[in-house]
Amino acid sequence: MAFVVIQFLNGLASAADLFLVSAGLSIIFGVTRIVNFAHGSFYMLGAYLAFTLVEGVVGPALGFWPGIVAAAVAVAILGGLLEVTLLRRIYQAPELFQLLATFGVVLIVQDLVLLVWGPEDRIGPRAPGLEGAVSLLGHQFPRYDLFLIALGPIVLGALFLLFRRTRWGILVRAATQDREMAAALGVNERWLFTSVFVLGAFLAGLGGAVQLPREAVHHTMDLEIIVEAFVVVVIGGLGSVTGAFLASIILAELNAFGIVIFPEVTLVLVFLVMAVVLVIRPTGLLGRPEFAIRAASGVAEPPITPQSEAARNWVFAGVLGLAVLPVVADAYVLSVATEIMIFVLFAISLQFLMGISGMVSFGHAASFGLGAYGAALMIKHAGAPMELAFLAGIGLAALGALVIGWFCVRLTGVYLAMLTLAFAQIAWSVAFQWYGVTGGDNGILGVWPAAWAASPIVFFYLTLAVTTLALVILRRIIFAPFGFGLRACRDSVLRAEAIGIDRRQVQWLGFAVAGAFAGVAGALYAFLKGSVFPDVLAVPVSVDGLVMVLLGGIQRLNGPIVGALVYKLLQIVLASYTDYWRLVIGVIIIGLVVAFPQGIVGFFGTRLDALLVQRRNSP
Amino acid sequence: MSKAICGHRTASGKQQTGTLNMLTRRDFLTAGAATLAMTAGSPRWSAAAEPIRIGEINSYSGLPAFTLPYRNGWQLAVEEINAAGGVLGRPLEVISRDDGGKPGDAVTAANELLSREKAALLVGTFFSHVGLAVADLANQKKVLFVAAEPLSDALTWEKGNRYTFRLRPNVSMQAGMLAEEAAKLKAKRWASIAPNYEYGQSAVAAFKRLMAARRPDIEWVAEQWPALGKLDPGPTVQVLAEAKPEAIFNVTFAADLTKFVREGQTRGLFKDREVVSLLTGEPEYLDPLGAEAPIGWIVTGYPWYEIDTPRHQAFLAAYQARFSDYPRLGSVVGYAAMKSVAAIITRAGKVDSELMVEAAKGVTLETPFDEIMYRSLDHQSTLGAYVGRTALRDGKGVMVNWRYADGAAYLPGAAEVAKLRPAR
User: B230-249, pLDDT tens digit by residue?
Assistant: First the structure.
């Protein structure tokens, strides 16, 4: 019994940190609708700054408690600066686009931390007065954990008072419930957004800073917390601080007791919980369903029309140009071009899901990875030839998308996106742990193309043919009645259903189509690399896809082509030339975001269209 | 290594600051190599002495605490080799790439190194899955691959191939070194904690297997499998303590290790308990713990401050003179990996993949630790590791009462290798 009590307290101490970070994230999302990837960076900066200030690495040592608070304040200021200088410029962009900017910040901070604090882990001091442990029910319980246990409810209480008892809090709640209405009533949105960002960053910075006596301060802290923080926010209900509090306790306690019974559960627990919660309660524990109905589309865009002749000629010229590439390029350039085409295909399938069908996916890697694994498993376990394995990959991806889609189309907006993430992580952990079948994290080796396709030139042409064919088919689908149905469901569920479209049926099928095409890309990728590892199912692949689609312009048919080309090319080329790849690409992404708030193709497309209209109208 | 959100791949190496123009960069590289050679007081290469190009890949951005000292190590080796006249009368030129910890990116980088940079062979990698991906590519392309750091047994056994050789002692060898010491302990009730991936699992499995052979009387009473980088310290330590083990086998490292050690010490988990811990004595992982370093743990590691063999003294002096820093284990691995490459090419007498593979089988060379050999049996080198206990000295963790465990003593014989390593 004593053990149960102590373990419960342990869970509460772990929950405190999760709560601090996710509360800030939830508040920021609630008001600004920004999916703030950089929140993990705030957390990490909080820890590093606290280390520096407490230890007095630069300037005088502030001592522990003042150092912690100063670090959180410093992060809050950074958060405010970020909002004022960067995010404020792009609120008018389509929703989710801000995600791209925060992703750029993540990359920059990762390298800056390395540059400023060096590669080695740092260990901060113990909290003065709270070193050591007290004896509790015959167990040694750290004093500092008692402080953390108290900190959670204290912060919750303070936030409660802030939101209920101050005018600022009332405005925040108003904006969380209905941003447009709040703005229409004369609330100064600019100031409100900035202050919310400052508060959120403060909480994240504090969360990082109070880890000083427990954690090593290290340069992957940001990524270790951010996904989990999102999960907490979604389980709790977007914008709900109390929900985040509940969810962090539930997750921490489930983990604390889960590892007693089933220690291996650590890998997947949070995502299993999220999937279950979202299936039962589609808007989280305390969330309200009123917003995020049109998550991906934002302001009214002109409907997609079949390509103008000029645009079609451009695409045709591009394919033709690629077809003669092997004449001038060496094997390496061909393999890079092949990889880029594969990601173009992947990005197109994601754009079909996000832009056309209006279902944002944070877990599109699931389809990509299942495509790769389907092909690899067929080769490993059935000794099948490449052609058959290829089909198996597509089949597995489509099947996976059917299963995942069946659950996901019951949700909307960010909840849907997070459920896709949950399924992708579950698929990842299956691939990661099922040694007998998938080879676990040692992966499946020897997935090379058949002899006839082994040369880089042939495989290049194969990929070009498959990608072009897929592009044409997807275009056909988009302008077929089914594609119009998808767009109708995206733009207005009510009207679509009123004219007799079975929304769930149509979206489910759309989900499966997108999954199948991502599977094609995954299978090609497996043969290009010759081996498959759980990485193909992991978060970075999903994020890369998002970045490509958003970079190109979510509502543009050619957006993902340009986005994938630019992003992948930058990745591969910069990687060869600089140690600080992330810093450079982060800066470039932010530059592109500010310069092209509609995406690259969106930007040029809009101007091109205007030009064409002008020319047509002129005598 | 954790599954990071943000992919990244960066190149590395101080010679890597060329412009986007390929030609310029290549000229620059050659110039860089020549400068290095001259500063080291070596003969000027004749125009005919075209450098031997070595393709090097590692997770520079993914695990900088290990890979940056590793890079220093191989740079020192290259400078020494070139100062001494190079290999086969030609200087070595290393073209280095970052895989960001991702196997797919490592394959891209390897392809670039082979087809564009015309690398004669590949060397490097840290993570096991990245090492396996590159090994499979090497097998496909029929080029030599000297894996520096990946520890997975599979690399040279279950998934071993003709073209892949490995420098560092694998998981089973290191577990064997520890089991030898652990078997002498009185403890009968054991618990384990390891990161939840292949490295952690195979380490625990190997240790259990080896302990069972030596000590049939012990029992395993608890196990914990935190996800890499996500160890939840309080609850995890509590569960281990609740099982009341007499000894703990630990495989966690880096940030997880720090959390585990700090929390365990606060809660008295290590009081009157033996802890046997893989890799913890390596400066990469022990030094960040500072004054909180654990005391009395049985670990594998690298006590660079006490090894006084002439071969290590020479390495230490050269390293400290060159970098004004002390070497980490990664430095030794990088240094020995590049020396291995030189020894293999010298023995082959020609830069040719098949000849180099044959030459690599049974090649011997000096490393800062010992003279090592790459076994022709399974392509595993006999490099060993230092085994000792941790202690605190001047507010820093150190290894004491250590000994060098020669890797050869922990490698299986021909009959067992035949079972472990399927003929292909």
Answer: 899 999 999 999 999 999 99
| CA nearest neighbour of A303 among A537, A134, A478 | A478
* Per-residue pLDDT, A289: 67
What pLDDT, on the 0 to 100 scale, is given for residue A555? 79
Query: What single-letter DSSP state applies at residue A122?
Result: B
CB contacts, 8 Å: B136 with chain A: 445-446, 530-531
- pLDDT of residue B37 exceeding 60: no
Chain B residues with CB under 8 Å of A125 CB are none
Return d(Cα B147, Cα B103) in angstroms, integer. 14
The one-letter code for the residue type at A540 is: P
Say which CATH number the domain at B136 has: 3.40.50.2300
Q: Is the pLDDT of residue B36 over 70?
A: no
- The closest alpha carbon to A196, from A35, A32, A348, belongs to A32
**Residue B29 within any structural domain of the chain:** yes
Looking at the complex, report in whole angstroms how far the Cα of residue A258 sits from the nearest Cα belonging to chain B. Answer: 10
> How far is the C-alpha of A458 from the C-alpha of A159, rounded, in Å?
61
- Banded pLDDT at B45 (limits 50, 70, 90): low
The per-residue pLDDT for B4 is 34
Q: pLDDT confidence of B42, banded at 50, 70, 90?
A: very low
Contact assignment for B61 to A216 by CB distance below 8 Å: no
Supply φ then ψ for residue A523, to 5 degrees.
Answer: -65, -40
Kindly list the residues from chain B whose CB atom is less than 8 angstroms away from the CB atom of residue A213.
262
State residue A555 phi and psi, 5-degree precision. -95, 10
Q: What is the Cα–Cα distance from B327 to B91, expressed in whole angstroms? A: 25
Higher pLDDT, A262 or A58: A262
**Cβ proximity of A418 and A230 under 8 Å:** yes
pLDDT at B38: 40
A267 at B interface, C-beta within 8 A: yes
Nearest to A443 by CA among A368, A376, A507: A376
B15 domain residue, yes or no: no
Structure tokens at A340: 């880029």
Gap from B68 CA to chain A (nearest CA, Å): 8
Q: Where are the domains of chain A?
A: 2-280, 330-566
Query: What mean pLDDT value characterizes chain B?
Result: 87
What span, in angstroms and rounded, lies between the C-alpha atoms of A318 and A307?
15
Min distance B117 CA to chain A CA atoms (Å): 9
Residue span of the structural domain in which B182 resides: 172-306+385-420
Q: Are strands B274-281 and B371-373 parallel, antiparallel or unpaired?
A: unpaired
To which residue do tokens 């790439």 refer? B97
Q: Say if residue B50 is in the same domain as residue B179.
A: no
A2-280: CATH architecture: Orthogonal Bundle (1.10)
Query: Does B114 share its domain with B159?
Result: yes
- Kindly state whether residue B3 falls inside one of the protein's structural domains: no
In a domain, B17, yes or no: no
pLDDT digits (tens, 9 = 90+) for A357-405: 999 999 999 999 999 999 999 999 988 899 999 999 999 999 999 999 9
**Rounded distance, CA B281 to CA B298, Å?**
9
Query: CB B292 to CB A121 under 8 A?
Result: no
Dihedral angle at the C-alpha atoms of A17, A18, A24, A28, nearest 10 degrees?
Answer: 170
Instruction: Give the C-alpha distances (Å, rounded to integers) separating A264 from A429, B189, B196.
Output: 11, 21, 7
Tokens of A364: 């599109």
